[in-house]
Amino acid sequence: GGPGFSLVFAALLVLGLLENGGVMLYRFYLDTSVIGGVFDPEFRVSGRVFIEEVMARGDQFIVSPLVLDEIRSAPPRVGAYLDSLGSHTKVWIPDARVAILRDAYIESGIITPKWLSDATHVAIATVSMCRAIVSWNYKHIVHMDKIPRYNEVNRRHGYEDIAIHTPDEVLNYG
Fold first, then answer.
1. HSE of 7, CA atoms in CB hemisphere, 13 A
2. Could you tell me if 134 and 28 are in contact, meaning their C-beta atoms sit under 8 angstroms apart?
């Protein structure tokens, strides 16, 4: 391609979406429920399989300072598990765009201010251009009535739709 292709390619490299010969890499936002879920009998198997699959493909997990704060109050093995993901995990530092989008979710009635952290998780996943947010939070995040509403707000603010799934819904992706 011409100069347009080179600029797009450079932008994707900066965003961490391409690597080695143009192979598309996926980024998945992990909320705290997935990380802690690897120790829960109900969620352990599909959560671990999903995480192992992402690592085997060389894809990336995005977490936020919010996830790190939530994990501090979890049993130590949860934090140790997150640490074990090593270079596959990047921390995305939220900025004003995240606050604007988070507040828009609340203002549109998708979620109440009481669940500000859940709205923040979705906003960070959207702004950081993750392929999906992966969560076990059925009440406020992985909810069939809320997902299209989150994406309606995303589009209104100039963002792409964000896929929102449980770990078992994204097994064998790509």
1. 3
2. yes
142-171 pLDDT, tens digit each: 999 999 999 999 999 999 999 999 999 998
Contact between 31 and 93 under an 8 Å Cβ cutoff? The reply is no
> With the CA atoms of 46, 37, 81 and 14 taken in that order, what torsion angle do they form, in degrees rounded to the nearest 10?
70
Q: Name 165's bridge partners.
A: 134
Residue with tokens 């604007």: 100
Q: Report the pLDDT value the prediction gives residue 139, as an integer from 0 to 100.
A: 92
Nearest to 142 by CA among 117, 167, 124: 167
pTM of the model: 0.85
Whose tokens are 């201010």? That residue is 113
Confidence of residue 23 (pLDDT cuts 50, 70, 90): low
Band the pLDDT of 3: cuts 50, 70, 90. very low
The first and second tokens of residue 5, run together, are 């292709």
HEC string of the chain equals CCHHHHHHHHHHHHHCCEECCCEECCEEEECHHHHHHCCCCCCHHHHHHHHHHHHHHCCEEEECHHHHHHHHCCCHHHHHHHHHCHHHEEECCCCHHHHHHHHHHHHCCCCCHHHHHHHHHHHHHHHCCCCEEECCCCCCCCCCCCHHHHHHHHHHCCCCCCEEECHHHHCCCC
